[in-house]
Structures are given as structure tokens and as C-alpha cells.
Amino acid sequence: MSIKTKPIQCMACGRCSASCPARGIMDVPPHKFVKYTNEKRTEECASSNTIRNCLSCYTCAARCPRGVGPVAVINEARLAVLRKIGGEIMSQDDVPNLILNDENIPQQLIVAAMRKYR
Question: Could you say which of 12, 39, 60, 102 would form a disulfide bridge with 16 (CB–CB 3.0 to 4.6 Å)?
């Protein structure tokens, strides 16, 4: 399935939110996040905890019948907020400490965190 990342194609069916493993810790579920994007409610998107709590697991993209892929919309919003504040939440120097403190941490998780928070 390809991700089109065209939020306007979202029909707000809620399948993405129903299958999201992080839905319980999000104040704006994925389908509403896409809806807010369509409605140009950027401040609500930027201030929501969804951009921090999204796991970027792409489950929502797999479940979307129209291929919208809410994860891509959320990731773009996260990057826009990070660019606006001009900072990095995680730096390369943090990685050795993560590995030393927990040797069972998967490398994929570290790479995903670098992509997500840098």
C-alpha cells in the first residue's frame, strides 16, 4: 500500500484511530488529526500530544482505505514544530548513553527515535 499523504482524501472513517496502539495516550486521535489538518487548525495540531505520542508504526497507514496514511501527516506536523522551535530533542551524543544504560534496547528503536526527535 502506498501512502498518498493527501489529507483531503480522508473520509474520517476512524479505522486508523481504532487500530492505533497509542490511541489511549493521544488527545487527538489520528483521524481527527487529519481532519484538523484539513480544517487548517494548525495550532491545535501543533499543541496536541499526538505529535509526541505517535509511535510511527504505520498501522494507521495499513488500515486506511484511501491510503492517506495519518502517520505521514503527524510526522510532518512534528517536523514543522521542531523546525519552528529550532531545537533537537535528541542528539547523537545521547545514543551511547541509551545503549550503555539498557543493552536490550533494539537498534531499530534508537534509529526511529533519532528520526523522530531530531
Answer: 60
